[in-house]
Amino acid sequence: MRGGPRKRAEGAGRKPRLVFTDRLAATLVHLRLGLPHAALAELYGVDRSTVSAAIREVRPLLAARGFAIPNRPGLCIRTLDDLFAYADAEGVDIRLDGTEVQVRRPRAGRPGRKAFVSGKKKQNTIKTTTLSDHQGRTLFSGVVRPGRMHDQTAVRTEGIAEQFRLHPDVHAEVDSGSQGLAKEFPSQVSAPPKKPAQDAPDGDKRAWREARRRQSSARIVVEHTNAEYKQWHPLQRYTGRREDYEQTHLAIVGLVSDRAARRTTRRLTSTELVPVRATAC
Predict the structure, then answer these.
(1) CA gap 41, 39 in Å, rounded
(2) 4, 156, 174, 265: most buried by Cβ count inside 10 Å?
(3) Domain ranges of the chain
(4) CA dihedral sign of residues 230, 233, 238, 240
(5) Is 219 in contact with 95 (CB distance < 8 Å)?
(6) pTM higher than 0.90, yes or no?
(7) Sheet containing 172-173, strands listed edge to edge, beginning at the edge strand earlier in sequence
(8) Helix (H, G, I), strand (E, B) or coil at 64
(9) What is the pLDDT of residue 281?
């Protein structure tokens, strides 16, 4: 029919030079080691454009898989709604933290060039937000944004604060960058305690140090989760197109979550102080 969409029979069109298993392997090697497309083309004996087309085909498939759920084979979390519904139903306390990756500086004179300049690193970066369980197993990672945007701004604009409002039984540990979230939901979100005044009693300072230690001990696992991502070369310093970073990030984090979900669930230990032996009053 003239004027309608083009119809193509199944299997028609140009045949790929690499079979699907080779296209998948090339994409995984590129994501893990950051090898250039030209180097992979030499390994497979094909043109560089063939490898580039293979990566463009496979990478979105990996990015769309979602994040594996521990002890739930075959089930995945794909959105913040899924994550908070899972945490609410299973009683999972989440750990929330932001991380950033250096990217190439935009060309001079391009609009929005300063949007990627991080106030913390003084470099062009892209930020993401990671949420994990008490063992550091990835439950969600995304909320991709330019480096100039503060973590607290992203928490509100991307709907994380709204999720805490919809799920009042979900609890989280955050760092000092999310103090505003802890103030808004004091019974759900735990942030590092404020440092006492310089002239405060020694007892208050010791209590503050102990409370800070406990909170840091409970939250540090999400830092280890972010460090696990940085073992993949593209997330150490991303040199590709910034438009492709989100897809690359999701593909890598999804693969990391598959490995993390296979870790055995450990009993959540308590950090409360208990006496070693009974004492008489």
Answers:
(1) 5
(2) 174
(3) 18-63, 69-105+112-261
(4) negative
(5) yes
(6) no
(7) 138-146, 125-132, 94-102, 172-173, 189-190
(8) coil
(9) 47
